[in-house]
Amino acid sequence: MLDRSRLRIAMQKSGRLSEESQKLFASCGIKINLQQQRLIAFAENMPIDILRVRDDDIPGLVMDGVVDLGIIGENVLEEELLNRRAQGEDPRYITLRRLDFGGCRLSIAMPLDAEYTGPQSLQNSRIATSYPHLLKRYLDEQKVRFKSCLLNGSVEVAPRAGLSDAICDLVSTGATLEANGLREVEVIYRSKASLIQRDGEMSDDKQELINKLLTRMQGVIQARE
Ligand code: PRP
Ligand code: ZN
Ligand code: MG
């Protein structure tokens, strides 16, 4: 078992946010060796343990109080919030700081030849996505009825595979959409990385360490601006 007196931080193991998260830890003076395939890394110079997990699991780990801090995309965070609320839970966390990386947008995209004149074009359509709650919130507001098909990855393949009429997925450069013959028709959510903290009591030692890290982050981010 891990030592609960050490500050526990979750970061994405591999993907869009991992390199920047790692850089941020380094610039805050946390010495960690993330080279290996190890899923838990211990800081050498501070009482900090880093858990390297799937990004999608980070909001839940923070909301369940399993980790003290997490670096996560707001898109994944908001989706998990809506998901838990839909199940009757009252999930809690504290946003410590919006970060200056991980920018992307959650968009609806359609095959190049499909007609699109506005959200009403999606009436009674099937839309493949990993973000069913964010998609539903948006299309409910637009009074559009639709069916979502849940795919946890390679969502862009769905229209050509005959699974759906459209998709709703993250777009960063747009290269994945282009490579799959899709065009972005609607942006429904804009996201950046964010540092969040679990709700509930924190020991004085941990809170002091968190404050120290926040001050350093503030300096690092300001210097980059
Ligand atoms: C996203 C998204 C697309 C791709 C878009 O995946 O699902 O596949 O990036 O990027 P582009 O516009 O630059 O081509 P992500 O890297 O977030 O991985 P994940 O969905 O597996 O977490
Ligand atoms: Zn993911
Ligand atoms: Mg993806």
CATH topology of the largest domain: D-Maltodextrin-Binding Protein, domain 2
Note the quaternary state here. Answer: single chain
Question: What class would the helix/strand composition place it in?
Answer: alpha/beta
Proportion of residues in helical segments: 25-40%
Task: Give the rounded overall mean pLDDT.
Answer: 96
How many helices in DSSP terms?
7
Could you tell me the radius of gyration in angstroms? Answer: 19 Å
What is the H/E string? EHEEHEHEEEHEHEHEEH
Strands in their spatial order, largest beta sheet? 2-3-1-4-11-5
Number of domains: 2
Bound molecules: 1-O-pyrophosphono-5-O-phosphono-alpha-D-ribofuranose, zinc ion, magnesium ion
The CA-CA distance between the termini, in Å, is 40 Å
- Given this structure, which CATH class of the largest domain is correct? Alpha Beta
Beta-strand residue percentage:
25-35%
The shape is elongated
- CATH architecture type of the largest domain: 3-Layer(aba) Sandwich
Can you give me a brief rundown of this structure?
Equilibrium between an active dimeric form, an inactive hexameric form and higher aggregates. Interconversion between the various forms is largely reversible and is influenced by the natural substrates and inhibitors of the enzyme. Helix content is 31%, strand content 29%.
